[in-house]
Design a protein that fits this description.
- This protein is an alpha+beta fold and 131 residues long.
- Helix content is 23%, strand content 47%.
- It contains 1 helix and 9 strands, in the order H-E-E-E-E-E-E-E-E-E.
- 11% of the residues are buried.
Amino acid sequence: MKLKFLILSLIILCTGILNDATIQEDKTSILCSGKWYISSMQSGEMTIEVPDDKRDNMWMNFFKDGKHEVMASGNIKKGSWKFSKNKDSLVFNTQGGEIKYMKLRGLNKKELKLTFVDGGEKINISLDQNK
């Protein structure tokens, strides 16, 4: 009886680990599927919708090798990214050695939603893959 319980527990544990790895791989595939253009930003009560003609200058690009690029204010910044241990956040290492954390609020094939803190202020950004 104990052996059956041990085998069943082992199967359940391995299945959970494999499902977690599959979910993580799916998130990575979606995240790395192309450029994510910023569509809106929210800080406190203020929401800014990014006009279509400005979206070419505000995007994020993720690569499966752990590298990323961010276009803001006409400058491309490069660095690396990974999922945090809790898998609900992204950890960014910038070229300057700065580490930034962004909470993953939503991710599907159409939309990416992130939250981060900058200067003590919580900022929500929404991105999509349409220019």
